[in-house]
Specification:
The protein is mostly beta strands. It folds into three domains: 221 residues, Lipoprotein YajI-like (Immunoglobulin-like, Sandwich); 108 residues, Immunoglobulin-like (Sandwich), CATH 2.60.40.10; 127 residues, Immunoglobulin-like. 1% of the residues lie in helices and 50% in strands. It has one helix and 30 strands. The longest helix has 5 residues. The radius of gyration is 25 Å and the shape is globular.
């Protein structure tokens, strides 16, 4: 997930698809106080299950493990759980599977394990937690994700549509087809409901990238308050050859921006990623934003000093502007494969149209690299500039360069290809790699990305070059920009750089790696957008 994933509406959905999760902090349950959801005393976490296809004593046996954490300030007595496994369309396939857990002290967790034989494929599950004085129901519309508290009432004065189940996959014609189950959790009728399908693939570095999108009508477009409906799905066009996975979302213009941006699942990539987002306006004048998500470490090493950065973006009058930034630091290191909740409040957030999130973190395995005292900055010239902000070398020799590009011209540029080169002591090239920026850059716009080179050990310096196409008056004129690392940014117009060799930049100090994902509200309508 290093680099910029612009799902223009994500991840982008063009402003974009929602982002990726819903989670809770230990002492403060995520949905506490949300409309339709009462304050919870427990949190269900670390859900995982395995399947034994056939053994001597059983067949198609499913074993599910999870933790029940007491997030209240009192001891919970007589705690028990009932697990029901559900098909993608809401039919029970196994359960309820029961287990007694006894008492759980405040902030403590109890491990639960249930199992059943002859369990067919399931796509969702429900857990009912009972204790003296109360009962809570938790639900997940995925067989792998942690569950969320199930609403006990309807969200007032809004329509809130969510996909609660699906049985969709490529058919014989290689088109996505099947059925989806959608619920309106709001007190108002959902109108003009649409279905959005996002196709995800991988770039050369194995990072998740959006490769296609389709939005179309869903049934008659109407779902009554509090009701669930099942709809047939037939997505026009063939599934992209490079597709690794896909995501299905229900869209409703009646829903608030925060509702549209909430949700998302993990892509299980080998990097840091966030999912299960939840956004809620709070405050006397709804001036603040409550944000929560889950953060997953997909790397094979422990990461520390993890900082989740969010930039809120406005697209008013077609101009992209950053209106607010916020950083949240995780309280503890994150082990490989670990998933933890994060929740925070952004104070005084003005009107926005989307957001961009990124991670800064350290692995403890970056080799010492010297860093120039002055932080690199753009020169803000009337040209295309390229900046190399950070360069790190991992224990396996992989070199990561965190870069930014800026369009200082008065027109957009497109088809940008950045070449990052590792140099020997004599200035000759040791290794190089290219990074293509999929989206054009508007005047004044910046884009962040990461270039990765495998086994780049032994380099003495580095530089970069970017080739692009001008977008003047609908024409297409090639352009080139040359630059180096450190405080100096690259800048050029349409002329190629002089052939004179540049002095290699000194190897820099260890700096946190960075990854970026741009997101925003879904945009309904339009044909499938394939590269």
């Amino acid at each position: 997930m290093n680099g910029k994933r612009v799902v223009k509406r994500e991840w982008r959905w063009t402003v974009g698809l929602a982002a990726l999760c819903a989670s809770w902090i230990a002492a403060a349950p995520l949905f506490s106080g949300e409309e339709g959801i009462e304050e919870t005393r427990v949190v269900i976490e670390k859900w995982v299950y395995s399947r034994e296809r056939k053994t001597i004593t059983s067949s198609n046996r499913v074993i599910a493990n999870f933790n029940v954490k007491n997030v209240s300030g009192k001891v919970l007595e007589g705690v028990s759980v009932q697990v029901t496994l559900i098909s993608g369309l809401g039919e029970k396939v196994a359960g309820p599977l029961k287990q007694d857990l006894g008492s759980i002290k405040p902030q403590a967790s109890a491990a639960a394990q249930v199992s059943a034989n002859l369990v067919p494929a399931f796509g969702a599950y429900e857990i009912v937690v009972s204790y003296q004085g109360g009962t809570e129901t938790w639900y997940s519309n995925s067989d792998t994700a942690n569950p969320q508290p199930k609403p006990k009432g309807l969200a007032q004065n809004t329509a809130r549509v969510v996909v609660v189940g699906q049985e969709v996959g490529p058919d014989k014609a290689n088109q996505l087809a099947g059925q989806v189950r959608v619920r309106n959790e709001g007190s108002l009728e959902a109108k003009d409901v649409k279905l959005q399908v996002i196709y995800w693939g991988e770039d050369k570095a194995g990072k998740k990238v959006k490769i296609g999108e389709w939005t179309g009508p869903l049934g008659n477009g109407r779902i009554p308050p509090g009701k669930e409906q099942t709809f047939p799905v037939k997505v026009p066009g063939r599934v992209p050859v490079a597709m690794k996975t896909f995501e299905i979302r229900a869209l409703c213009p009646e829903a608030a921006l925060e509702t549209q941006m909430s949700g998302g699942e993990f892509a299980n990539i080998k990097d840091l990623e966030a999912a299960h987002w939840k956004f809620k306006r709070v405050g006397d004048k709804q001036q603040d934003l409550e944000v929560s998500c889950e953060v997953r470490n997909g790397l094979n090493v422990e990461v520390r000093d993890v900082r989740l950065n969010i930039d809120f973006i406005s697209n008013e009058n077609g101009k992209r502007t950053k209106v607010k930034s916020h950083a949240h630091v995780l309280s503890a290191p994150l082990k490989s494969g670990e998933v933890v909740p994060a929740t925070f409040t952004v104070q005084g957030l003005p009107k926005y149209d989307g957001y961009e999130c990124s991670f800064d973190f350290g692995t403890g395995e970056a080799q010492a690299i010297e860093k120039k005292p002055a932080a690199p900055q753009f020169r803000n010239q009337a040209a295309v500039e390229v900046l190399i902000k950070e360069v790190t070398t991992a224990a396996d020799g992989t070199v990561l360069a965190v870069c930014s590009a800026r369009n200082g011209l008065s027109h957009q540029v497109r088809d940008m290809v950045v070449t990052f080169r590792l140099l020997k002591q004599d200035g000759s090239v040791l290794k190089q790699a290219e990074k293509k920026l999929e989206d054009p850059l508007l005047p004044g716009e910046e884009a962040s990305f990461v270039v990765r080179i495998s086994d780049g050990r032994g380099f003495a310096g580095y530089d970069s070059q970017v080739a692009f196409v001008h977008g003047k008056n609908g024409g297409a004129t090639p352009g080139v920009a040359q630059g180096t690392a450190g405080p100096q940014a690259s800048a050029a117009e349409a002329q190629p750089p002089a052939p004179a060799a540049q002095a290699p930049q000194p190897v820099a100090q260890p700096a946190p790696r960075k990854q970026t994902v741009e997101t925003g509200p879904p945009v309904p309508g339009g044909p499938m957008d394939l590269p």
